[in-house]
């Protein structure tokens, strides 16, 4: 169902980027926040955190 | 601190924490059972919702319900409604709620009460922070007695607009009562947590309106819940709206009835008014449960006993105006968050006044049917609205009880809590070449999601299978308004009866249909997955970093390989957005 003309390297094509983010305050409450804080303080990514 | 103790934690004693909801009218204490369930603790009088009132008779201290009863005979030595005075300038407080009890007074730039709390005839000046300490000491004792352990720490709920000075004053007052406040959490967030921590609830993205309808004030907050993390988008407060206004409706109603019979107004005498007020509150509570309630006061005025009944319909009629103020406040909060009522997935009603069935029904009619209104009369699974804040605090307390104090402070520091949030939703379009125009946008990461974040979802491919083009893009939510089709008016038969037909056509006018539609605003990336089986599914994972770089992986469910790619962060994002 692909258009004939469409092609890209490794079948992946970047066409744009995200709009800027808004800075907001997350509520420091709940298990998911604590996990977020832990990742942020130890500068881990999701997958690194999953492994621990 | 850690230097002096050579690395040993300064608190050598074991920490035992509870959750406290400290309100102007009522306070609650709660803990988490060994099975992990948050429970509100009853004090020795059996009250779970303990009036925040202290009263002194012959140097003896009364607390809670007993103290509240003293408002009739011993009003000048009874202190209530003091939470909002803590850490405040005398000039900035509103003393109205204390009209019928000990009056707040200026004392060394803070607020104090002149009461007789000792055996001597002399009045003593007790500051609001000392009153708070005494109140918290009683709460702590009730919790310690119930749990059989010395409670020495707590997570306390506060309104969202509680200032740093108020927090500091409360921390001090609690310390004097032997309670180490581990963390302040916001009341609306505590309510959301109380619901989300139930084992049956599933973490999902939703927009929640938390309406905290209290005794002397009401607060509404709009909370974005994204992946279990909460962000407050807007708050509104009304310091004159609350259960006290509903009490007043009943006070006036019964007073009028009394005047008709006995020609005296019980509201003109302080003691009669105090009696009527206490009883009217009880009648109001009874009307939340049953459709009829009685009120009886011994010797209301001039030594005359008074007893009467009122039914719920009558009460709801009399309170119509107050009820609509509550719904207006809720509408205002949604507007302030720049949202539409269609965006709201859940409404949590908390605070004592939320027990009123009519309020829940009015709120339900304000929102679309798909919006869940969590209140006892609209949802069988609702938690007692009076318990929510305390329960949320207990859950948070159990989560951080084991942490070092430094750990808690660092985790709640703005360095951690101030986080970029997605401005627009990110979603996925599956496109088949034949009808690109009909490609549907399905949001995957919602707007206001805190970053970093990742989401995975599966999408059904177009029936035929084959090669599929997937486009990740930003989307905008729009409200589509469909005007009702102009009804063909039946050829004006009723011409001679103009008034009637005019009236009819306005009444019958169908409401316009409003719905949410998604518009793609900006494509981010496109990729192809080739050779998908008919009726197959594609799994797409999108991860967005804190700097707005996007990582995408996709594969056919059950298939091998797949596509992965990376979209760089926009260049201006580093410093442009704050």
UniProtKB/TrEMBL annotation, chain B:
- Give GO cellular component annotations, separated by semicolons: cytosol; nucleus
**Which Gene3D superfamilies does its entry note?**
3.30.30.30, 3.30.420.40, Actin, Chain A, domain 4 (3.90.640.10)
Spell out the InterPro entries in the cross-references.
ATPase_NBD, Hsp_70_fam
Q: Where is this region: Disordered?
A: 483-516
Is the ATP-binding keyword given for this protein?
yes
Alphabetic keyword roster: ATP-binding, Nucleotide-binding
Q: Which residues form a coiled coil?
A: none
Q: Which residue windows does the record flag with biased composition (Basic and acidic residues)?
A: 483-492
Key word Acetylation present in the record?
no
The record, for SUPFAM superfamilies, names: Actin-like ATPase domain (SSF53067)
Record field: compositional bias (Acidic residues):
493-513
Question: Where are the membrane-spanning stretches?
Answer: none
- CDD domains this protein is in? ASKHA_NBD_HSP70_ScSsz1p-like
An annotated Gene Ontology molecular function: ATP binding
Protein name (Swiss-Prot/TrEMBL) = Hsp70-like protein
Q: Which organism is it from?
A: Helicocarpus griseus UAMH5409
- Organism lineage: Eukaryota, Fungi, Dikarya, Ascomycota, Pezizomycotina
């Amino acid at each position: 169902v692909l258009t004939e003309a469409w092609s890209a390297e490794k079948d992946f094509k970047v066409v744009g980027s995200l709009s800027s983010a808004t800075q907001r305050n997350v509520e420091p409450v709940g298990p998911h926040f604590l996990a977020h804080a832990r990742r942020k303080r130890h500068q881990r990514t999701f997958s690194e955190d999953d492994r621990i | 601190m850690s230097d002096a103790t050579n690395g040993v934690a300064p608190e050598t004693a074991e920490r035992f924490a509870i959750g406290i909801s400290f309100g102007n009218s009522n306070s609650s204490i709660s803990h988490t059972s060994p099975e992990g369930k948050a429970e509100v603790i009853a004090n020795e009088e059996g009250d779970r919702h303990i009036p925040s009132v202290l009263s002194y008779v012959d140097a003896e201290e009364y607390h809670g319900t007993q103290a509240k009863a003293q408002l009739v005979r011993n009003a000048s030595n009874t202190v209530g409604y003091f939470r909002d005075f803590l850490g405040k300038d005398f000039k900035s407080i509103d003393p109205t709620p204390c009209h019928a009890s000990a009056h707040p007074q200026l004392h060394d730039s803070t607020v104090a009460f002149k009461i007789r709390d000792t055996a001597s005839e002399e009045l003593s000046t007790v500051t609001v922070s000392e009153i708070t300490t005494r109140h918290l000491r009683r709460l702590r004792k009730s919790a310690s007695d119930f749990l059989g352990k010395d409670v020495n720490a707590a997570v306390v709920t506060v309104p969202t607009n509680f200032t740093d000075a108020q927090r500091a004053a409360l921390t001090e007052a609690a310390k004097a009562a032997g309670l180490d406040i581990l963390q302040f959490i916001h009341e609306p967030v505590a309510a959301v947590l109380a619901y989300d921590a139930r084992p049956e609830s599933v973490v999902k993205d939703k927009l929640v309106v938390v309406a905290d309808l209290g005794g002397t004030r009401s607060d509404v907050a709009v909370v974005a819940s994204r992946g279990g993390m909460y962000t407050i988008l807007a708050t509104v407060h009304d310091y004159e709206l609350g259960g006290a206004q509903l009490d007043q409706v009943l006070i006036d109603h019964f007073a009028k009835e009394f005047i008709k019979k006995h020609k005296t107004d019980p509201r003109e005498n302080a003691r009669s008014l105090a009696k009527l007020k206490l009883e009217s509150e009880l009648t109001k509570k009874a009307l939340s449960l049953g459709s009829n309630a009685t009120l009886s006061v011994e010797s209301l005025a001039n030594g005359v006993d008074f007893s009467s009944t009122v039914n719920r319909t009558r009460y709801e009629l009399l309170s119509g105006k107050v009820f609509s103020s509550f719904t207006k406040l809720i509408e205002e909060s949604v507007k302030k968050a720049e949202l539409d009522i269609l965006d709201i997935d859940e409404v949590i009603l908390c605070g004592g006044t939320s027990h009123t069935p009519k309020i829940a029904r009015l709120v339900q009619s304000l929102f679309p049917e798909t919006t869940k209104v969590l209140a006892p009369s609209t949802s069988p699974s609702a938690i007692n609205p009076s318990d929510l804040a305390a329960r949320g605090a207990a859950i948070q307390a159990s989560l951080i009880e084991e942490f070092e104090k430094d750990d808690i402070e660092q985790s709640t520091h703005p360095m951690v809590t101030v986080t970029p949030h997605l401005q627009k939703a990110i979603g996925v379009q599956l496109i088949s070449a034949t009808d690109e125009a009909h490609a549907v946008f399905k949001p995957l990461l919602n707007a206001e999601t805190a970053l970093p974040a990742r989401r995975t979802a599966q999408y059904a491919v177009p029936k035929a299978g084959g090669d599929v083009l997937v486009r990740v893009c930003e989307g905008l939510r729009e409200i589509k308004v469909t005007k009702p089709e102009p009804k063909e008016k039946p050829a004006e038969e009723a011409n001679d009866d103009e008034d009637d037909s005019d009236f009819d056509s306005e009444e019958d006018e169908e409401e316009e249909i409003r719905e949410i539609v998604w518009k793609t605003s900006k494509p981010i990336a496109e990729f192809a997955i080739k050779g998908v089986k008919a009726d197959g599914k594609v799994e797409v994972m999108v991860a967005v970093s804190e700097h707005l770089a996007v990582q995408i992986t996709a594969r056919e469910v059950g298939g091998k390989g797949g596509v992965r790619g990376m979209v760089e962060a926009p260049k201006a994002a580093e410093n442009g957005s704050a």
